[in-house]
Amino acid sequence: xxxxxxxxxxxxxxxxxxxxxxxxxxxxxxxxxxxxxxxxxxxxxxxxxxxxxxxxxxxxxxxxxxxxxxxxxxxxxxxxxxxxxxxxxxxxxxxxxxxxxxxxxxxxxxxxxxxxxxxxxxxxxxxxxxxxxxxxxxxxxxxxxxxxxxxxxxxxxxxxxxxxxxxxxxxxxxxxxxxxxxxxxxxxxxxxxxxxxxxxxxxxxxxxxxxxxxxxxxxxxxxxx
Length: 225
What we know:
Layout: E1 2-10, E2 16-25, E3 30-35, H1 41-48, E4 56-61, E5 64-65, H2 74-78, E6 81-85, H3 96-107, H4 111-124, H5 140-152, E7 158-162, H6 170-185, E8 189-193, H7 197-203, E9 206-211, E10 214-219
Parallel strand pairs: 3-8, 3-9, 6-7, 7-8
Antiparallel strand pairs: 1-2, 1-4, 4-5, 9-10
């Protein structure tokens, strides 16, 4: 599903975001990405979503070599990748329904199919009754769930989450992780960047650790005793 082969990312001015990072994530895995602030977690996710391009090495995602992918094919790649952000990135001048529907509208789906998929996604995250509300009326946890519904409404095989519980209390954080586990159980691959070590340990999943742009740890989940 994801294969990084000696991937580096250098920014103008000389800052190194990633340095010779190599790993492989198989389909249907759920993996956590951790490390200090500025370690390169967001950079790594952006390379997978093609929000940025690598400076060196090879990035393969879902059978595509992103290093060679032409710009005109980037939108097709992004349809296979759901992205969830800490700050939600919701459009506050549109309803919850319209926010979740946006990827489907861009893809050109029909009105009836959009309605069916959006309501199914909102039902999955427990917010179907909020579909006509503006995002500003929702709590932080509810806004995050709207962001998750928007990310999964296109049924992508891969979900990326960048600090999805960073602004949430422990109970809400567990709810969000339980949602991710449910998606994983039906075959979705997940890569989740987070600082929450306690939450990571509770999930008992593989952990990739970054430090100063380098991959310093790859801990496979241990079998429960």
